[in-house]
Each structure stands twice: as structure tokens, then as C-alpha cells.
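Hypothesis: this fold can be encoded by more than one sequence.
Test: take the C-alpha cells below, design a sequence, compare later.
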């Protein structure tokens, strides 16, 4: 089986490409060749690299045909962000592939109603990114129903792994938050610190793609949350990290409107986006239909990423040994 991954050298592809090669798939990766996988793996020698800029090819109206020309049995689309982009690809691949897997996001859900949120909850996305991803999901599910297009949608939470900064307990990417907790210094959190984040290790997202391929008949025409077994509150996350560093968390809580002036505008905006969504997703459907068994809790995944930050000198922390 030939798998074409579009954007397969990033967070998820770093883990997914080696899994595919080891499982015996013939793997082709489309990317601009600007980035390298986060971790070396001998399996990459078996991955055929096709250098294409999706945006440029789409503007020329040629991207779908370029993908089709690679004769894929399976297409894994990691980097689709607009309905138009999804439509262009589906029109080219209709009737030509056995499985089409799209990478969505938990942001297709707006604010939660019943938590943990199931895949079946009505979508109420806000913000352009979530709105577009929800429109893509609705389109792909409709194509599956009406035209038998073999689509599966996988919605990751906040992807974590060694090689990049995890979303921190204040809901942004500043390593300083981890530094304050590591030193036992005061950390201000917005509101009561009870809004949530839902991380997932990149390898568990990769595991879910493998599960969807292995369970084709139950995966087609469905969406699945790719998240850890449980979301974290900001407060609980901060307390756990402090304790991991052998400290007691010293937390101060202020309403978001005051709190936002204590950080940069970029950090404030990112925190707002995270806490306004406060994802808390259920994995029950993926457990039942795909055999999804995440290897990492949120905290285990985060500690791996924070250990990497420390090892890289990207944050200062007392020795953990
Ligand atoms: N990061 C998160 O926490 C998160 C959370 C939820 C959902 N998601 C979803 O996950 C997907 C991203 O997966 P990821 O995090 O594994 O990807 P990623 O780390 O952002 O990597 C993107 C990949 O796409 C390639 N790429 C970027 N622009 C391209 C272009 N114009 N043409 C061809 N290739 C291009 C990159 O390689 P080159 O630069 O070399 O081209 C790289 O291989 C997105 O659909 C996103 O919505 C992410």
C-alpha cells in the first residue's frame, strides 16, 4: 500500500512516518524540504521525499493532480486549513484512493457543553482556524455519506513532544512559566485557574492514524479525538509541574482582563485562545472503534517536552536528579 503524507516531516509525521515504514507501507512525503523530522530515525531512508509547495501548487490549480500522480492508495493530509483547499484535493482524489485521513483539531468544538466532549456534539467553532477546520470536517463527512469518499478525520489536542515548546500552565508557550514553577516563585494565572488544556503526545496522534488505517471499515466516515486520557486544569497543571521540580506551587489568581497586562500581547492572545476553548475531549470513541490506547498522560508528555527544553538550554531549571 502506498501512503502519501502531505506535510509529514512535522510534529506528527516525525512519529508517523517511521510507524508506517515499520508496518510495511511504502511512504511518500510531500513537503517543501525546509524542515527535518524532530527525531532521526533510520526509517526515513525508506521515505520518498517529493518537494512541493502546496500553496503554490494550489494557486496553480495543480496540487490535487500532483498528489494523484503519485498513485497513492492512502493519503494523509497533515496541513489542510481551508475548505477550498480540502475541496480541491477531494475533487482530484474522488474514486481514486482507498483511505483519506485529514488532520483536524479540537478547535472544531467551540465552548464545551457536556464534558468530556464527544465527537458527536454539535460544532460551535469560533475563530477563523476552528471555523475552517469545522467546515472541512463537515464537508469530508458529507462526501463520505453522499459519494462514498473514504475520509477519516483525526482531531489532535495540543501536540506535545521533545523538540518544541509545550503549551504551559498559563496557556501560552513561554518557557518562563516553567522556570517560575521550577524555582518555587509566584505564578499568576487567569481567573480561578480552572479552565482546561488537553494535550497529546505526537506519538499518540501517530498511533491513532495507525489505528484508523488498521480499522478502515469503522474509521471511514468518522471523526476521532486524538487527545490524552484526561485534560488538565491550569491550576492542577501548575501544581503538578511545581511538585515535579520538588517545589510547592505559589499561585496567584486574577481575572483575565487584569492578568493579560502581566504578559506580552502575544502571550495574552494565545492564553485567551486556549482558555476560551478550554478543550476537554473524550477518547471513548477512538478506544472502542480504533483500539486507541494512549501511551502518555498529559503530564508524562509534557515532562518529556520540558526535559528536552532543559537539555537544550531553552529554559533554566534546577537539576532534577
Ligand atoms: N500543533 C498542534 O498543537 C496542533 C493541535 C491540533 C491540531 N493540529 C493540526 O495538526 C496539523 C499539523 O500537523 P503537525 O503539527 O505534525 O505539522 P507541523 O509540525 O506544523 O509540520 C508541517 C509539515 O508540513 C510541511 N509544510 C508546511 N507548509 C507546507 C507547504 N506550503 N507545502 C508543503 N509542505 C508544507 C512542513 O515541512 P516544510 O516546512 O519542509 O515544507 C512539515 O512537514 C495541522 O492540520 C494542525 O491544524 C496541530
Amino acid at each position: 500500500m502506498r501512503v502519501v503524507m502531505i506535510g509529514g516531516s512535522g510534529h506528527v509525521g516525525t512519529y508517523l512516518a517511521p510507524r508506517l515504514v515499520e508496518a510495511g507501507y511504502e511512504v511518500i512525503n510531500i513537503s517543501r524540504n525546509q524542515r527535518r523530522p524532530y527525531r532521526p530515525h533510520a526509517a526515513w531512508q525508506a521515505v520518498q521525499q517529493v518537494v512541493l509547495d502546496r500553496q503554490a501548487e494550489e494557486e496553480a490549480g495543480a496540487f490535487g493532480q500532483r498528489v494523484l500522480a503519485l498513485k497513492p492508495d492512502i493519503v494523509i493530509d497533515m496541513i489542510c486549513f481551508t475548505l477550498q483547499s480540502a475541496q480541491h484535493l477531494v475533487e482530484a482524489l474522488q474514486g481514486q484512493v482507498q483511505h483519506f485521513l485529514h488532520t483536524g483539531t479540537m478547535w472544531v468544538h467551540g465552548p464545551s457543553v457536556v464534558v468530556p466532549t464527544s465527537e458527536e456534539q454539535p460544532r460551535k467553532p469560533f475563530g477563523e482556524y476552528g471555523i475552517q477546520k469545522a467546515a472541512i470536517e463537515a464537508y469530508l463527512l458529507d462526501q463520505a455519506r453522499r459519494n462514498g469518499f473514504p475520509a477519516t478525520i483525526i482531531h489532535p489536542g495540543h501536540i506535545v513532544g521533545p523538540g518544541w515548546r509545550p503549551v504551559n500552565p498559563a496557556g501560552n508557550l513561554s518557557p518562563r512559566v516553567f522556570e517560575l514553577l521550577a524555582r518555587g516563585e509566584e505564578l499568576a494565572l487567569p481567573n480561578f485557574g480552572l479552565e482546561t488544556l488537553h494535550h497529546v503526545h505526537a506519538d499518540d496522534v501517530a498511533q491513532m492514524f495507525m489505528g484508523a488505517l488498521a480499522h478502515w471499515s469503522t474509521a471511514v466516515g468518522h471523526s476521532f479525538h486524538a487527545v490524552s486520557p484526561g485534560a488538565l486544569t491550569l491550576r492542577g497543571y501548575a501544581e503538578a509541574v511545581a511538585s515535579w521540580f520538588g517545589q510547592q506551587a505559589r499561585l496567584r489568581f486574577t481575572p483575565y482582563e487584569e492578568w493579560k497586562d502581566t504578559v506580552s500581547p502575544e502571550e495574552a492572545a494565545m492564553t485567551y485562545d486556549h482558555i476560551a476553548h478550554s478543550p476537554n475531549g473524550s477518547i471513548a470513541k477512538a478506544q472502542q472503534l480504533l483500539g486507541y490506547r494512549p501511551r502518555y498522560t498529559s503530564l508524562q508528555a509534557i515532562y518529556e517536552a520540558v526535559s528536552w527544553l532543559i537539555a537544550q538550554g531553552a529554559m533554566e531549571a534546577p537539576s532534577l536528579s
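The first helix runs from residue 11 to 22. The pocket of NAP is lined by residues 7-13, 30-35, 52-55, 78-79, 103, 105, 156, 158-159 (CB under 6 Å).
Hypothesis status: open.
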